[in-house]
Amino acid sequence: MQVASAGLSSMPSPALPFPVSVAFSGMSPAFRSALGRTLRFQRGAEVYAEGNLADHLYKVVAGAIRTCRILPDGRRMIAHFALQGDLFGLDGVQHHRFFAEAVTDTVVIAFPRKEITEWVSREPGAAHSWNTYTLEKLTAAQDRFIMLGRRTAAERVAAFLLDLADRGQRPDESIDLPMSRYDIADYLGLTSETVSRLLSNLRKNRIIAEQGSHRFRILNREALEERADEESI
Question: Is the dihedral of CA 22, 26, 30, 36 positive or negative?
């Protein structure tokens, strides 16, 4: 795998589960260890570039990743945030259509696509889970198109917070936001000023509470869900 980024080191991966949410009982720890490699990236380092050969799939072990593209007019578009436990790297068939960067100091496991394909072809349960996973990602992409095309700025921010809360699944409804306001804005198609103003409005209305510079807690989920569906800016 070719990675052109500063601040990266690699070492053999520990025996971690295969990065699809299914129990692969036939995959031995030794096979998993040989299949994946642990890579460490400093904040802002590039994991892969747009146009690079898409020959690996990645799982976030710690930290966060953003996949991006620079538009012809110079604006940045963020397509996806991969958080702990998430997969990324499925942004092209032969070559990556986006570039991926570490949002914070991040640890990922890189899995060769070729070996994943060979394993899935041998294991019917793995093939079923992989198909389910890819369909889920397609559904998520379609939901994102609807969000960007039909929702107001307030609805986008509320929906973004709910998505992070659901992905984190913490009983206290706390949300980690490792990304900056600029990142959130480029993901939601807004300005950073708008994102900051809408977050402040949610705090003033005691719908969320700030717990440090990169963490919020949902105080009123019902109200946040209502804003995600109905409120206009």
Answer: negative
- SS3 state of residue 161: helix
E strand or H helix at 57: strand 56-62
47-98 residue pLDDT tens: 999 999 999 989 899 999 999 999 999 999 999 999 998 889 988 889 999 9
- pLDDT tens-place string over residues 92-148: 889 999 999 999 999 999 988 888 777 778 777 777 777 777 777 777 777 777 777
Q: What is the DSSP string of 102-141?
A: ESSSEEEEEEEHHHHHHHHHH-HHHHHHHHHHHHHHHHHH
Do residues 68 and 182 touch, judged by C-beta distance below 8 A? no
Do the beta carbons of residue 65 and residue 106 sit within 8 Å? Answer: yes
pTM exceeds cut of 0.90? no
Residue 88 pairs in a beta bridge with 58
Q: Right CATH number for 151-229 from 1.10.10.10, 3.90.740.10, 1.20.272.10, 3.40.50.2300?
A: 1.10.10.10
